[in-house]
Amino acid sequence: MSYTNFVKAAEAQVLINTPDVLFIDCSFALNDKEWGRKEYEKSHIPGALYADLDKDLSGAIIAGVTGRHPLPEKRDLEATFSAWGIAPTTQVVAYDAGAGFMAAARLWWLLKWAGHEQVAVLDGGKKVWAEKGFPLESGVVTPEAATFTAHFNDSLLATAEEVMKATEKHGSCVIDSRTADRYAGQNETIDPVAGHIPEAISRPFNANITPEGIVAGQEAVRGYFAADFAKEDVIFYCGSGVTAAFNVLLSAYAGYPSPKLYAGSWSEWITDPGRPVAIGA
Fold first, then answer.
1. Where does this protein have coiled-coil stretches (predicted)?
2. What is the mean pLDDT of residues 108-126?
């Protein structure tokens, strides 16, 4: 069976040590960039590799040009996936310390962009996995390389120029995935400029995570985005293109057609002082 959006812990645990299944731990903390790797070394799903958001899942930052987590160069991403042993038939299960937004969904999106469909995010991440008593191990896993041939689908991407045009076009839908306070410009602790892209609507990435740390049911998520996908040109963004990928994942889970991701997101948008900024809810 192929998993392409979320996979439940009970479903995933039977895949341990299964040929052509690869678990990848993407746990990361913005305020402590070594935390995720240290946590991985202490305990991870058996056989899992570690993917670092900054080093593996992002490209080089160019001051005044890119956002905080620019996309990797295509050739670099292809080389990374090959080094990890991702072959055409590999089922990838990405997970992190929580529900999948930091940064399992980023890996999910990158693999989709590269043309690999068999990738899913572990619902509830390592937290729920551990709560269910499923096995964990320590140490570092060395991958066996394979040949990953990417088929990049750039139609999944939106540029800053396309976002600008979408905000000026009747019927388009630009969605800010950050928390509501950051959208309103009330609590900006990460980026140097507060606010949001004018005409963008707020759909916080964490609105569909239950108190138990898993995603809400498909019908609930479908209803959450219903008015948005009734429009054209749905584009998601966040602070740096990471948590917006979680909203893209949620939309796939809900059965909607693939939206676009403005990967540079807010941290790229504000590098150009000529781009407009809005404040308030």
1. none
2. 98
Longest dimension (CA), the chain: 53
* Residue 173 falls in the annotated catalytic set: no
Q: Which of 163, 238, 244, 254 is catalytic?
A: 238
CATH number of the CATH domain containing 67: 3.40.250.10
Tally of domains within the chain: 2
Give the pTM: 0.97
Could you tell me if 39 and 84 lie in one domain? yes
Whether residue 141 lies inside any domain: the answer is no
Q: Are residues 97 and 162 in the same domain?
A: no
In a domain, 149, yes or no: no
Q: Are 126 and 165 part of one and the same domain?
A: no
Q: What is the DSSP string of 175-242?
A: EE-S-HHHHHTS---SSSS-SB-TT-EE--GGGGB-TTSSBPPHHHHHHHHHHHHTSEEEEEE-SSSS
pLDDT digits (tens, 9 = 90+) for 18-50: 999 999 999 999 999 999 999 999 999 999 999
- Tokens in use for 220? 């609930």
- Inform me whether the pLDDT recorded for 172 exceeds 90: no
Domain with 119, as residue range(s), is: 6-131
pLDDT of residue 257: 97
Measured CA to CA in angstroms, residue 8 lies from 51, 75, 98, 272 at distances of 21, 32, 13, 42
